[in-house]
Amino acid sequence: MKEIILTIKYKHYAQLTELPEVDKKLILQSRKAVERGYAPYSGYKVGAAVLLQNGVIITGSNQENAAYPSGLCAERTALFYASSQHPNIPIIAVAISTQSDPPSDFAKPCGACRQVMAEYEDLACQPMHIILDGPAQIIVIDGINGLLPLRFGKQEMR
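Now predict its structure.
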């Protein structure tokens, strides 16, 4: 038997002003998208902003539905729209923001959203820049393996 320990590397920021300008811009767009979230059941609104390689930013918000699980997460809303409207343009970054009461420490994508991000990262053949925004901290991870290390799709560790 061989025991293997997986570790993740991420950057921690205490406030928005510490981030590079492109990350700030993406977070501000995801925060705007939060306001368009429809979350009457959970009260947990989420917004996402996706940056494409051509500079276009696509936003999405979570959309709940009484016929659960018919709703859709903000991340998948934005990613699927980006792919359908801009096919073959790599997705290079995604910022995710939340609004809840009590506040969450930072946004945490669900497993389905993580797997969708993995698929688009594989299509781009480069790690996706992932920004998880919260009221007290911002976490930045370069590559989906930091969120979903043992996943479907490409299995090699980067």
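The two ends are 24 Å apart (CA to CA).
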